[in-house]
Each structure stands twice: as structure tokens, then as C-alpha cells.
Amino acid sequence: MTVSAGAPEPAAMEDTRPAALTFDKVSMRFPDGTQAIGEVSLTIRQGEFVSIVGPSGCGKSTLLKIASGLFPQTTGTVTVDRSHLGYTFQDATLLPWRKVLGNVELLMELRGYPKEERRRIALEQISLVGLDGFANHYPKRLSGGMRMRASLARSLSLNPTVFMFDEPFGALDEITRERLNDELLSLYMRKGFTGLFITHSISEAVYLSSKVIVMSRRPGTILNVYDIPFGFPRSPELRYDPVFTELCGEISVSLREATEGGA
Amino acid sequence: MSTISPTAKGINSGAGSMSNSTPTMNTTTYQPVPFSKPRGPLSQVAMVVIPPLVVFALFLVLYTWVRSGLEPHRQFLMPSGSELWHNAFALPEIRYELLTRALTTIGIALTGLAVSIPIGILLAVIMFRAMILERALFPNIVAMQSIPTLAIIPLIQTALGFGMLPKVLIVAKFTLFAIPITLLLGLKSVDRGIIDLFRLQGARWHTILFKACFPSAAPSLFAGLRIAASLAVISAIVSELFFLAGRGGLGQMIINSKIDFKYEQMYAGLITATLLSVSVYIIFTWLGNRFFAGWHESGAPQT
């Protein structure tokens, strides 16, 4: 009942949590006529962690940009609270001329937080993502994984209610990525935000999420929705669980159909 | 050393005669090659200072050689080192004149920059604000740059007389071009994601300009400032060549020395002007490195 799409809905219990993000018949056409998003309706409930996978160029990132307000949709409505929005980009997008501390303070600065409060919250977040001792480093001296941690800390500083991730770990190596997945999960449990996560990696989507959405080729629509039956917290061993592997396989088949199917 | 692949003959032998036999393999054992020892700080400085001095010394040799080929009555065109010293740099009154005239010239150059830098920055920001403004202004800036400055100096003279103002304007016109061009390029090269990051917080245009675009564009602006700064001294001297009344700077000294047939003094003026121009360039480069060494690739210490 949480996600309505053309695809058959998996049997799920009635979810009564209030909606954090609702797409009602949202479509998006660029000025040059390219139809980026077909027609998408979906509801993400508070506290859910939803991942979206889909063929490259299917409009996953566009969907996220619409949800965050960076792009306007062409038709349909989006209902969301953007006042406490977390958003991470495909790369860390740190300001290279600011040290880690200055970067983590940036959003609070734009929001007009007082200086001392900014400093205090920033140092807390830096510690939370495990960057203690790196507050006075310029981004160019950090590894890719550390930059992404700083980027997460920056988003966390606003204490987001909805946190959107646009393939944040795509450029990282496998080990760093899995470690950041675990840290993201513990942040999710600790902070209790609602997560919307775009990724290319099926196992990453399954590992992180309570729900995985498969999108079709462009113009992107929702093809399938998978409820992920594992509770939280999750441990890395979950990746070797037969049910986990089977789910990944199923989603992989669906994704291949999405990529090749004559939609 | 050895062949690992089929011989050239084998490759060129054509499709018809291709055989499946494995090519013969001649292995070679490669010995380790140690890296050269890292240089001490003194040696590092020497590596920066000595090569340009060597080239300069070669240039002096060339100068001496050309000079020795001149007929004796034309050798005044290229004074020797000792002539230069005895007739110019060794004389206190000449040294004093060089110093005061250099100050006049640098005054004109810096005042010109003080005019052109703010105007250049403002032009870049206006062009950055909207595409339509860029389309409107950019061709005109290029057109202005294309006006031969030397050709309009007589006009400037007639209009503005012989004071400080016309010279400052000439310097400003010379140095303006590099600033909006480099700054606009820098402003437009800001990471899209950073702009989005600001937009997500509802940041206004001027906030994005000051907190994202300007810092990001600062290294390219400094590249423009470096060009402008070295042009400033040159154009200050050029401007003086046309204004001989009153007490002028090095440019006037160069012309006057020619009139008075004091070629050593003329060379002294030229050398001082060059040193001035080079030092302005070095100062701006040094400032840029200081500002950006921490975060920008261009500021990374050279190895």
C-alpha cells in the first residue's frame, strides 16, 4: 500500500506511519523535449529507507532532484518537508578552499546559525563520521572515503528528517563502500531520518534498505518494488545470507528486464 | 635488447600465410634502477635559481659578441658593462634619478591597476549574472581591446592634456582586458554540485557569488592579475614616451637620454623598467601562491 505502481505489489502489512515524501503522478520533460520521468507515484513513510535502482540514464537522479526541489516536475505533485533536507551528491562537493570544519559548518552558516553553535554541532558531526583530528585538513589532503564522510557530516549538521543520497559511494572502492554502508546504517538508526538512496549497486540497495524500487528505462517509471525482509541493525554477514543473495538475484533479473525490455 | 613479439616479417606476411606457431620468446632480465637521491634544500634553491641565470649569461655572451661585431663608431648603441657602470649606475645622481623616476612609473602603473581591477571585476560579475549581459558586453570588451592603444594616445592627449590622468587611463585600458576574461572563466567553472548545494539551502544569488563563485574563481582571477600587473609597468612606460613635459618616470628618462645622446642612461632606464616589471609579476605570483597553496593545485609547491 505504500508504493503504488503499475507493477504487481508485493504483499505487505498496512503501513500506518505518516508519509514523509509523496509523489503523485509526477512526470518530467526537459525543455528540449526529452521525457525524463514517465509517471511516478510513490509514498515513502517516515523512518523508511528506500533505494532506487535502474538502468543508467533512466532518470533516478532526476527523480531525486525533483524530490529535493533542484528540478521542477512537469506534471503531478510532490509533498515533502524540505526544511530539514539532507542531500549528498555523487561526489563529496566539498568547497576546496575550506577546511573540513568550515565545510561541515557551511549549511548551518547559510541557515544563519550562531557561530558557537555551528562550531559545536560541526565538531560533533565530524566526530560522528569518524573524522576526529581531520577538522583542520583541506579536502585535497583527504581520501575519497574521508571526503564522503565529511560530506555526510555536513548534511547531518542540519539534523535532516529526510535524507537523499544521489549515488554517494559510486566512486569508492568496494571495501570503503561497504564500510561506509555500515556507518550509514548506524547513522540511520541513530538519527532516525527517512532515507531515499539512488545507487547502481543492487547489493548496496538491498543491504541498506527497507524497500528497493526498480525503475524502467527512460522515460523512467516504477517497474517493481521489493520489500526487504531484514530488520535493523544489520551486520556485514547479511551479505552472505541465502535470502539476501536470492533477493539480489531477483532484483538483478528485474533490472536486466528493465534495461533490455522494449518499454 | 630482445624480441618478445613476432618479427616484423611475421606481422607483414599477410593473412594468407598466417601460421599458428607460437613466436619464439627471448626473455631479458631487468636490473633494479635506484631513484636518484632526494636533493637538499640548498640544492633545490640552486635548481630554481641557476638555470635562468645560465640562460641569462648566454644572452650576455651573445650581446658581447654582437657588440664586438659593430663598427667602433656605432658601439655606443650597445654599451659595455663597464661603460654602463661608470656612466650610469655608479653615479649617485643617476641612481637617485632612476629611483625617483621608478617611483613615478610604479605610481602610474598602480593607479592604473586601481582603476582597471575594480572595473574588470565588475564587468565579469555583470556578465556572469545573465547570459544576455555577457552577449551584450563581451564583444565590446574584445573590440575595445582591439583598438590600437598607441594610435589613440594622441587623441587622449588632446582631450585630457599632459597630467597624470591620461597616463593612468592608458594603463587602465592596457590592463583591463585580462581581468574580466579570466575572472568570468573562473566564475563559470564553479562545480555545478556546489551551486546545487547552496540552492538546496535557498541561498540567494549574492550569497552564492560571494561564498561559492568568488573563492572558486580566485585562482583564475589571480592569473589575470599577474598578466595585468606586468602589463601595467610596460604600459606606464609606453604612456610616458608620449608625455615629455614635466617631471615624468622611466619612460621619459629613456626618451630624454636618447635626445641627449646618453645611451648608458637609456640602458639604465630600460634595465630598471624591466626589473620593476619582473618584480611586480613576482609579487603577484607570490601572493597568489600564498593564498592558494593550501587548497588549489596551482598553489602546490613545486618539486
TrEMBL record, chain A:
Pfam families: ABC_tran
Residue ranges occupied by any ABC transporter domain in the UniProt entry: 21-242
Gene Ontology terms for molecular function: ATP binding; ATP hydrolysis activity
Taxonomic superkingdom: Bacteria
PROSITE patterns: ABC_TRANSPORTER_1, ABC_TRANSPORTER_2
The keyword Calcium is assigned to this record: no
Keywords, comma-separated and alphabetical: ATP-binding, Nucleotide-binding, Transport
Family: Belongs to the ABC transporter superfamily.
Protein name: NitT/TauT family transport system ATP-binding protein
Automatic annotation (TrEMBL), chain B:
Membrane topology: Multi-pass membrane protein
Region feature (Disordered): 1-23
Transmembrane feature ranges: 45-66, 102-125, 137-156, 168-187, 231-255, 267-287
GO biological process, one term: transmembrane transport
Pfam families in UniProt: BPD_transp_1
Localization (cell): Cell membrane
Main localization category: membrane
Assigned GO CC terms: plasma membrane
Keyword Electron transport: no
UniProt entry keywords in alphabetical sequence: Cell membrane, Membrane, Transmembrane, Transmembrane helix, Transport
Span of domain ABC transmembrane type-1: 102-288
Family: Belongs to the binding-protein-dependent transport system permease family.
UniProt-recorded name of the protein: NitT/TauT family transport system permease protein
Organism (species): Aquamicrobium aerolatum DSM 21857
